[in-house]
Description:
Elements: H1 10-13, H2 16-26, H3 53-65, H4 69-83, H5 87-99, H6 102-111, H7 117-127, E1 128-134, E2 148-156, E3 162-168, E4 173-180, E5 183-188, H8 199-209, H9 214-219, E6 223-231, E7 237-244, H10 248-259, E8 267-269, E9 272-274, E10 276-284
Antiparallel strand pairs: 1-2, 2-3, 3-4, 4-5, 6-7, 6-10, 8-9
Helix pairs in contact: 3-4, 4-5, 5-6, 6-7
Amino acid sequence: MPDICESITPMQRTSPLALLLWIALLLPLGAFAQPGGKPKRSAGGNERSGDSTAFWMQRAAELERLGDNAGANAQLTKAYAHTGNTEILLDRTRVRRALGDSVGACADLRECGRLGELWSTRYQGECVRKDSVEFAASGLSAARFPGMKRVRRVRHVDEADLYLGLVDAGDTVRVGLVVSGNDTLFTKTEELPAYPGGMSEMYKHMAQTMRYPDDCADMGIQGKVFVQFTVAPDGRISDARVKRSVHPSLDAEALRVVNAMPPWTPARYRGEAVPFRFVLPVKFTLR
């Protein structure tokens, strides 16, 4: 009689405990994850799981086909917050238009300007309203702004603010203002606000203060966050907010860096210190 062991394969001779260990090595790690546990994100973020960008994008497309634009908007918002990929906003712009959310759609279209001139032009055409009036009909003080003849007015659909350009007899904009709620701030004047020591010192301060967010570094996300803030008549920085986003984590870091700045030299109009709205690009570059 032949030896029974000779007709048994190596796998069949393995003990039950060793066999279980062998199976564990062959199965994907995700098979042993507990329900509700957080799976590990792949480098590309394309895994088919409840917190993956691919899942959200696919779900958004399905909901849009079914006419559930509110649900599609929610899924696209998750995907954009996760990756900061501007191309996602192209889809969300369309969905928000379908929802009748012109403010949200224009906000997304403004961000899409980073993708090229076509989208910037489309934003200007669809979301910017311009007109002009005689200075006497503007409600502004002739004593405060002598020599002005007309006022050019610009309003963005995705903003509540009204921008004014005060034009002299030579059709040159001499003063820029923005009316924001009950406040009127300068955006163009004779003497602009200045960081102490100049722009080179400002960029040095920013480089020393900035901490690159780990999640953005891991995903290779970089770009310019445009931060809008007010330089008060005493030079203090206030009301900092993101004007153009890149990724939520980069946005938050840009705001932190701006808010950590020391007081500036204030803007002046006709010798008087005035509040000034400043827009600063904060650049994030991986090295």
